[in-house]
Amino acid sequence: MLWHAIAPSRRYTKASHDVVRHPRLCSDAKVLILYVQGLPDGATDLALSEHARNLGIKGRAFQRAKEQLVLCGFVHERRVCGERGRWVTQQVFANVPMAEGEVLALWCDAGIGVGVGVASSPSARFPTVGQPGPRTAGHQLPVDEEREKNFPHPPTETPGADAEVPVAPLTAEEAEAERVLLSLRDVSRGLRLGVAEARSLIAQTVEWLRRGVSGGELRQVLSSNLPHDGVRCAVGFLRHRLEQKLPEAAIPARPDAEPQRPPSNPPPPPAARYVAPLVTCTGPGTEHVFRSMAGETECPDCQQAAAWARWAERRAADLGVDLADDAAAAVEAGRDPDGWRGRLATAAAAGVPGGSGSL
Questions:
Q1: 327 pLDDT band (50/70/90 cuts)?
Q2: Rounded to whole angstroms, how far apart are CA atoms 41 and 20?
């Protein structure tokens, strides 16, 4: 290649060959070193990111260049506490790699404190609202806590406090009510009651029994149509049902009420069922009786036999046979000269094989 170079006479920056030919620095990092090295003294108060923005190096490109400069020792940063407790980031930029000890000496020469930063005097301003008051935290009790004096020792219990309180015996109705309430645990686990809980519901349960509701019906009412998500409080759930589903009480008759009089026109008594009389059948055979519903003189069996006899006479007349020759048998055998039996017999007599030709 051809090489032509003219040394500038003004407005130039000396760059070391170690920076220009550094193998671990990208072009953006090298441009930043040359740009910051040529800045005047009054333009060094801006952050490195502001100078990179002026060169068009933004975003990920600037982050990559800065990481390389920090890793190679050209840029050093630290966070210190400045005036009024605000944190400030201090940067040191060099055109040659520097160690941490060398940078620390530069910060000390510049008057920047080490560790916590610059020491600042307390502010002379007063608080924004009034003067500082006494401490009020720690003197308020929570809302759910009892607002009464706490004693270091619990109160002395009276003697005999643990003695069992005598329980009054239950009546028959109360015992039945307690049995129904305690048996609800067999229907659903969510309706499990203790003895004390069942005793608190006995009065309402007895009222149900006095209004004519049996123990089984009451158990069905209390344990049916339970919530899908379960019963949270069995006592509250059962108390609500006993109050809301209580049936109506029977209204007793007043002693001074007049007795109801029968109506002036009583309804007619129901008509007696008609029973047909027994009549002796006039048909043939042994003597027998039947119930005549419409004035019949023959029983249904004799009427059917007579009908068959009349039909046999008409059939014998149509076939031209005499009843003396057992007309009923002739009719039953189908001796009809015009029927299929007669044609089959005629064909057989004529000698036709199988008799199918005449058919």
A1: very low
A2: 23
Question: DSSP state, 129?
Answer: S
| CB-based contacts of 51-54 (< 8 A; 24+ apart in sequence) | 52/28
80 phi and psi angles, rounded to 5 deg: -130, 160
- Residue-wise pLDDT tens digits, 238-270: 888 888 888 887 666 566 656 666 666 777 777
Architecture of the 17-109 domain: Orthogonal Bundle (1.10)
Query: Over the chain, what is the mean pLDDT?
Result: 76
Q: Is the pLDDT at 134 greater than 60, yes or no?
A: yes
* Report field, pTM of the whole predicted structure over 0.90: no
Structure tokens at 147: 């607002």
What is the C-alpha separation between 322 and 341, in angstroms, rounded? 19
Residue 159 to residues 54, 126, 151, 163, 356: CA-CA distances in angstroms? Answer: 91, 63, 21, 9, 126
Instruction: Supply the DSSP string of 144-200, one letter for each residue.
Output: TS--SPPPSSPPPPPTTTTSPPPPPPP-HHHHHHHHHHHGGGGT-GGG---HHHHHH
Ranges of each domain in the chain: 17-109, 172-225+232-244, 278-355
